[in-house]
Specification:
mainly alpha
Length: about 425
Amino acid sequence: MPKAQKVDWRVVWAAAAAMLVEGYDLGVYGNLLPFLLKDGTLGMDTALAGVAGSAVFIGMLLGGLAAGWLNSRYGQRKVLVCGISVFSAAMLCTALVHDSVLFTGTRLVAGAGLGVVMPVCMAMARSACSSSMSSLCISVVMGGIPAGGIAASLLSWLTASHVGWRPLFVVGALIGPVLIPLLFSVLRRIVDPECEATDREVAQDVSPGSRRGVPLRELLAPAIAGMAATFCFLLSFYGLMTWLTKLMTEIRVPLDGALQLTLVLNTGAVLGSLLTGLLATRFGTLTLTVVSGVIGAVCLVLLPSGVITGAAMMLVVAVLGMVSPSAQNLVNSLVSEAVAAHWRTGVLGFTLGVGRLGAVLAPVIGSYLLVNVPAGEGITSPAGAVFVAFAVASLGGVVAACWLGGLVRRRTRHDQSVSGL
């Protein structure tokens, strides 16, 4: 990319469009959870719903770990298209099953397809912009997730009570066939073949017969710090995405109102992704990460406290939507800045893959607390315990992000000294 061109927005918007599939998937499952629990043909209870919710994240973990190798071997275009295709096929199968075990299996496969999509999209966006614009570009790409969640929330709110849950999974299956021709036509023109050739050279460098290997000392600390921050923030946000509708009904919010709050959460997430990305270019990525994580924790404690109701609750959910996913978006930006360009897909695949264990545990933690915490009011209720657990996770993410930010500063100083700046 020419130095004068700070951002190739075609790449950024193409990557954001690809992330719609993940947002729709997560949103539609959370919104339809009350309907799934009522479907006698599935035989699903709250505990099984937690397992099924975790299955997609286990698949994402596996896909994320494989993303770096697949990208190096086959290139970004093929990996991205294949990941979306696998997701679409799995969503269609989900709509057709009549057994909770098969339902969980199709969710696992859908997650594996999604798992390779995110790190490839992150690496594409970072390669398409200058360092000063990386936070904004990655935030725009990650904004595709809540945008997909908005679509899922709207469809669920307007149609689920009339048509049931299965047609909405069919809609999810159709997103891929609509997106793939558009993505492929754009990426065929703008993905630099030399970059993919470099990735394949890296794959050869780390092969068993190569004399060169992975620079573990350079990659290990950013990978662990990024993984820890990702684990905590994904536990908090994806747990919220999975359980918000159910949790709000537990604290006596009507189902219709709970679905509206889920829509508010996703709308806030889209706006927050753009706003925090812009602010990060002014105040710094780490600063916005810390602020987002702390505000998110405060909002999570406020929701079940009983202090807020009505419009105030809607405002808190909107703020929570703005800051909670934004913290993870900014962590992805920090990770991309902490390592060399040709290792980004692999390291992001690791941090997002292993870090998704937080998302794996989130639905299980939610179901465990809902089932086992004694009845109470406010924060002491089962729903309150779930909110507090997600708030603690958000604060843990802040601590890990501070470590990662220190590594980014160290790398920046090193690069400046090498270049003589």
